[in-house]
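Quiz preparation item.
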């Protein structure tokens, strides 16, 4: 399981030119799954995301988590996080988990996050337009 985390201001996700998810500030998460991913990996990464200290404190030091800082999460499914270009210029996605099981894991991931914080999402499997105001810029890859 891979999650690309971006500290964000106003961000949106649209499908067919209609906004389906938006946040004013917080984190944008791109989430991908592979074989062997399960609820335990989800719980581990959710805890890691919620405790990641990448928001500034009163002294301008990145010392606050999303829970301390406030804000929401915009979660986007993205199988291309498992792109492999070792055999040429055309990416292969054979490591990305496909189908119904990936969709169920994505739903479980978002439900686990929702226990602690407000979560907006894109639409699994849709062609999405993601508009991100990346603050910092701060981008961190998490994997389990």
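Solution:
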């Amino acid at each position: 399981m891979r999650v690309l985390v971006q500290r964000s201001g106003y961000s949106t996700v649209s499908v067919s030119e209609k906004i389906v998810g938006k946040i004013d500030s917080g984190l944008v998460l791109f989430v991908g799954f592979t074989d062997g991913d399960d609820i335990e990996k989800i719980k581990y990464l959710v805890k890691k995301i919620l405790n990641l200290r990448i928001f500034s404190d009163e002294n301008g030091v990145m010392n606050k988590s999303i829970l301390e800082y406030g804000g929401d999460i915009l979660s986007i499914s993205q199988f291309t996080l498992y792109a492999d270009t070792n055999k040429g210029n055309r990416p292969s996605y054979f490591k990305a988990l496909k189908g119904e099981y990936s969709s169920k894991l994505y739903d479980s991931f978002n439900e686990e996050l929702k226990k602690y914080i407000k979560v907006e999402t894109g639409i699994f499997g849709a062609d999405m337009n993601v508009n991100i105001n990346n603050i910092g810029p701060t981008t961190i890859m998490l994997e389990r």
